[in-house]
Amino acid sequence: MAAAVTIEKLSKSFGATRALDGLDLEVETGEVHxxxxxxxxxxxxxxxxxxxxxxxxxxxxxxxxxxxxxxxARLHRxxxxxxxxxxxxxxxxxxxxxxxxxxxxxxxxxxxxASLLERFELDPTKKARAYSKGNRQKVALVAALASDVELLxxxxxTSGLDPLMEAMFRECIGxxxxxxxxxxxxxxxLAEVEALCDRVSxxxxxxxxxxxxxxxxxxxxxxxxxxxLAGAPDDLATTPGVHDLRVNGTRVRCEVDTGSLNNVLLKxxxxxxxxxxxxxxxxxxxxxxxxEDEPVHPAETRAVRP
Amino acid sequence: MSSLVGTxxxxxxxxxxxxxxxxxxxxxxxxLVTSSTSATIALYPTVASRVQAAASLNNTAxxxxxxxxxxxxxxxxAVAMLKMGGIGTALVAVLALxxxxxxxxxxxxxxxxxLLGAAVVGRHAPLTAALLVAVGASLVLxxxxxxxxxxxxxxxxxxxxxxxxxxxxxxAFAALAAVxxxxxxxxxxxxxxxxxxxxxxxxxxxIGDSSSGQRLQWLSWLSPIGWxxxxxxFAGERWWVMTLLFGVAVALAAGAYALAARRDxxxxxxxxxxxxxxAARGLRTPLALAWRLQRGALLGxxxxxxxxxxxxGGIASNVGAILDSxxxxxxITALGGKASLSxxxxxxxxxxxxxxxxxxxxxxxxxxxxxxxxxxxxxxxxTALGRIRWAWSHLAIALAGTATLxxxxxxxxxxxxxxxxxxxxxxxxxxxGALVQLPAAWVLTGVVVAAFGLAPxxxxxxxxxxxxxxxxxxxxxxxxLNHMVMAISPFDHVPKLPGGxxxxxxxxxxxxxxxxxxxxxxxxxxxxxxx
Lengths: 306, 531
Prior knowledge:
The complex is a heterodimer of chains A (306) and B (531).
Chain A: E1 3-14, E2 17-28, E3 32-36, H1 43-50, E4 58-63, H2 72-76, E5 79-82, H3 94-105, H4 110-119, H5 133-145, E6 151-155, H6 163-178, E7 182-187, H7 190-196, E8 199-204, E9 207-213, H8 214-219, E10 222-229, E11 242-248, E12 251-257, H9 261-271, E13 273-279, H10 283-292
Parallel strand pairs in A: 3-7, 3-8, 5-6, 6-7
Antiparallel strand pairs in A: 1-2, 1-4, 8-9, 10-12, 10-13, 11-12
Chain B: H1 7-17, H2 21-43, H3 47-58, H4 61-67, H5 76-80, H6 82-103, H7 105-110, H8 112-117, H9 125-151, H10 156-183, H11 187-210, H12 224-230, H13 241-261, H14 286-316, H15 319-322, H16 326-335, H17 341-365, H18 367-373, H19 377-381, H20 387-421, H21 426-435, H22 438-454, H23 461-475, H24 483-486, H25 504-527
Helix pairs in contact in B: 1-9, 2-6, 2-9, 3-16, 4-11, 6-9, 6-10, 6-11, 9-10, 10-11, 10-12, 10-13, 11-14, 12-13, 14-17, 14-20, 16-17, 17-20, 17-21, 17-22, 17-23, 20-21, 20-22, 22-23, 22-25
């Protein structure tokens, strides 16, 4: 099946600030794709280019088989968007905003709308100025989720939601996936991405530094092992693939390259294992690994909002 | 007092934010008063020439309505400061009220005040800081104005009185804006309330000053702008009138503090009511949304224009009676039309109505940019709605709203005039005089749209152009500017109706200019980044 989003070598500058610097991204149809990066790494800029709000300086972006800059109306009927920073018209009620956005997109499922309002516990009769940040976010979420579209572009959609509502959001995205919709979920909440996403792209300073399924990404990384052994380990430190080794009597903690895991385990069992815990790398480890390193261009800062 | 903790920091913050705009505004005001004086000296070098000019002006109801009276025809200062004492005073009030609302309700609405409120800032500190800055700016403005007038050779007492009158009016409207800022949740509405109060104040003194006989003169005494003029700088200064200005300022400020103490941060005095859970059937197009967002403001403007038209039309039939000197008749005949004094009067007033209508057009079209910077456009443009169709929604309100306002003012002026003269045929003539203003007003809307498309950060150029055009029209003749320069203003090309000749060509090409500006702006917007 064709990819829902294909981005190649996308660049965008705002004055002297380089927001995107050759970004690549591919979102397969039907998948929930996590779009990870710290603040100001270019996530919102990418989504705005996909929405045709910004024009890329260089590179190509394809969305649902069309050009996001040219085929605006045709493409937008097939997608829904939740901005990270939801501002509403202060004197319209939440219900009015949901209906308006739905109608402008070309229709809204009234049943879904009602059930989403109930699930998110949102009062649609309140004027938008009276909503808290989380409630404004819910208005945008209900408007997007209640429409019958193929693609959801969600830019940090849960910022401002309480944990209960965030759980509800995860449930909804699960249903969307079940219905065959494609979701691009920009976030820096790693637990959320880990729970929801089939594949992940990690970006940094406007460039993609890692992309693949969580399993693939984990494969590239180390598993942490802690074990209580029958005797003192002697030559672990020199075994290839072992890192960050800490030995305390018979207790051992270390990080092991995935490729060397078998070798290391053989070594441990030859000494004799009393107890063993092994932890696959979390997304947080993957993420932090990319960001704790020296920055690519230390002198440059990357503000993203134009 | 603990409720004032942090005021000094907030004053510094406000001054930091206004460090460019306030000095520039003050400099422009001082430059205008001093250059007006110099130009008047050149124009009327002798006492006799001044007396003659003053007699003409005082006998022309439309000019008295707009600027006020010259209370001592022999006084150079009184003649020179006529326009600055009228329109200039109103502009000082605008500066003061915008400054207060910018630092109170606008900050509160944006949520920034909450950020500050969580710091060590007392409950009344923001209001106090805003008042201090606005009143301080008014006093500095008044001080420099007095110095400037004295420097170009006017008497010291009159210079001080004029500067004090400006400072007093600025202070009074700063306090009035402080009250308005407590009433509503939106800065836009607060500005509307304060602006309406200023408009009413100007209208009261216009009726009072220009009414024939003594009947309605007391109306001028209901108006802070009127008090500023009744200080009578350079014409036997009446210092006690200043106590009215500062007294009302103190009373209004006390009222603002009382209101502020009774409400929560972010809240207005009127509680929010629940609204509909679903959108009405009609709310499905961008135009319906734009109408929903702008209709309140348009209805307010509409009411003001109907009143304005009725006042102008009502006064017009008396104009002939109060003009007794032949020079005055020559003067007003030369000023505008040819047929009759009433026609010339109406043509002059309808010219002002045209300027006011373009003010509406500019602020309505600016909604394009404010919706964009508030990030409210993004979710709309992420739907199947195209950019140009969205832009047309607010643009249509601006263009049609301007037309509606001129139509309303023209009709109400025409009906009032027809009722006075008993000639129903006058309705169409007066209405025509209002409607010919439309293309020029649309040019201003076009300027805003062009800036929005090509240089959105410089959208304020719409206001700059409007002020520049008005100044060209007001002060161009005084400074004997080349007519080529004055012709830059679209208002310069509007036929003076009723009475003058209806020339269609300028109406067509002004509409053409407006259309070209709009097309340029929209094609620029189609190409540029949003946000």
